[in-house]
Amino acid sequence: MLSPEQLVHKQADAGVSVMSLTDHDTTEGLKQARTLCSERGITFINGIELSASFHGTSVDVLGYGFHEESAVLQSYLSHVRDLRIIRMERMLEQCQKNGVLVTIDDLAPFVTGSVPARPHLAKALVHLGYASSIQNAFRRYVGSSAPCYVNKQEEVHPLEAASLIQQAGGFAVIAHPVYYGLDQELSSWLQDTRIDGVEVYHRDHIEQDMARYKRMTEDAETRSRTLLKTGGTDYHHESFGRTGEYIGASQLPYEEAVRTVNHVKGGRSQ
Predict the structure, then answer these.
(1) H or E segment and range at residue 35
(2) Residue 93 belongs to what H/E stretch?
(3) Could you tell me which InterPro entries the record lists for this protein (predicted)?
(4) Quick check: pTM over 0.85?
(5) Partner of 2 at 20 to 30 A CA spacing, among 158, 187, 192, 216?
């Protein structure tokens, strides 16, 4: 994964005009990203991606425009960090059991935040010669069906994750919904005003998906309630997910970008 500094410079060099940093379960990179975006002339929206679960299905919940020092949110993130450390320790134990000699010290050069995650472990496995690429490391060792994988612990319900973001003054958006097969639930959450929008424009959404989620979101809107139709590339690194994928592979329509920025900058009072 790229550091916030590397990511912002890549965004600027690619001509991106609006960006959000939505690291999983951490706000650590936001201050640096905001400063660098200002220097490079990019409009910045602070973000996060909270890990959640619905009846065994992992669901990611994006947060935008929240108060980063929120005690409620930071207390939850501290708890998640502790669980992530325990999970990584167990994954390293599984590696050892499967003859993959990797330690926490081997991960250190690749960790860009405070907590090691699977992409960092995958990079270490490539460096140590156990895998030919990050994709290969996920497929052979750390992917969800691979021998060294350990399930996440105690993930919250998506609506609980959304509530944490909203309590911090932010807007909660369901990320890449095409992954989940939960369209009926998503429509209900939108209608019940429990979430603030949907990531309509994503690299894995085909035209029919985008049209469906756009219509679903617009059907739940009212004159007094704006719902967000956001977009993102889910970009981590050129070698993560799709080899050679470039920044900007998925583009949010300009009018939606302006609408999102204006609404988020205005705060939850709208």
Answers:
(1) helix 30-40
(2) helix 71-97
(3) PHP_domain, Pol/histidinol_Pase-like
(4) yes
(5) 158
